[in-house]
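the two lines:
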Amino acid sequence: MTRFLSDSAIERLREAADSPYLTGTRYRLVDKLGQGGMGGVFRVEDTALDRQVAMKVISVADPDGTGCARLLQEARIIAKLEHPGIVPVHDAGLLSDGRPYYTMKLVQGQRLEERVATVPALSDRLRIFLRICDAVAFAHAHGVLHRDLKPSNVMVGPFGEVLVMDWGLSKLVAEKAESSVSQSAGLSPKKLGNTATAHGTVLGTPGFMAPEQTRGESVDQRADVYSLGAILQSLSAEASPVPRALAAIRKQAMAEDSAGRYQTVTDLATDVAHFLDGLPVSAYPEGLVTRCWRWIVRNRVWILLLLAYVVARALLIFFRPR
Amino acid sequence: MNKALLGLILGGILGVFDGLSAWFTPAARPEILGIVMGSTVKGLIAGVLIGYFARKVNSLALGITFGLGVGLILAYAVAAMQPGPNHYYFEIMLPGGLVGLIVGYVTQRYGRGPSPTRA
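prediction for all of em together
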């Protein structure tokens, strides 16, 4: 049949089929925001509350229905994570055509990589990074791994709010088998726009994925630490030269062996915060001279004042009237 | 340590050293004890005033200005009380002002402010 239809017509039909069928719901379709691996994200109007929200709906092509289960699981995972740095879920359910959906806060802002282009100061970028760490550490504390942290999955709002998005690959640590989600969801690398190894399906984004994740091995929170290290690298790439302590933090966060990394996101955030405050960081052991110099730099104002006092006193003694 | 106490201790210590510097003036050596005591009391008064100000006003610029002012005024008073025709205003007020400046900075930058009141 398709030979009687042009490609563009087929594409339009596919888009129409993918669009959520909202009859009988409180939502009204506004436009499409984007297409993810499992489904599309649409801007809809919540007519009951008179506000716009984002709605994620599973794509039509879900023959075995596991994608639907995955979407609802994603909604439930995000719903567990009530944190200012994690986009909140408002509602979840089934459309009249049987497809599951969930609605979430419509985030207006810029992707991290767009935002940092307007934030030249390294310290400001690192403060944004710490907010990302806060959200991820919170998720870890609730047993949730993100597994796809990258700059394009972080939004920065107009008032500086930082939101970690796209928890579509997230998993509860308590889940039994690491690969179960990807296998049961039937998500091919092509659909996700990610890569696969010879060992099978791999979820994540090259360059931001921990080596063990790339190999399709079991991952834990240290995989997210690696991804955060990669984000830190992208945030500080333009700093020239990169301060040695910061480079050491990056290196430890992105260690090939997960045992050599920061064991928790909190540890990583603590080191970055110490770096920002001019304090020693655990990733970069310092010698006595460096430590003394750091102390002097941190306390330079009152040391200079004290020196000024001593010099003034010395001059007065030296030039005292005879 | 609260700011008033920090100011008191720092003012006292700097006052002691300020007084001891008189030892380098041979003519003043016989009266070194009185000078050190007077200088210490001056430092304590300046320190507690500046520290109290730091508890009430959270501003580095105002704290430093207030410290400088208190240091200069107290040093002026000491200089004015000097017997004889020579009051050494410059020699006494310059270090006195610097001591006030240091205490003003340190009490604003360090030390614990008042606890927030509960509603």
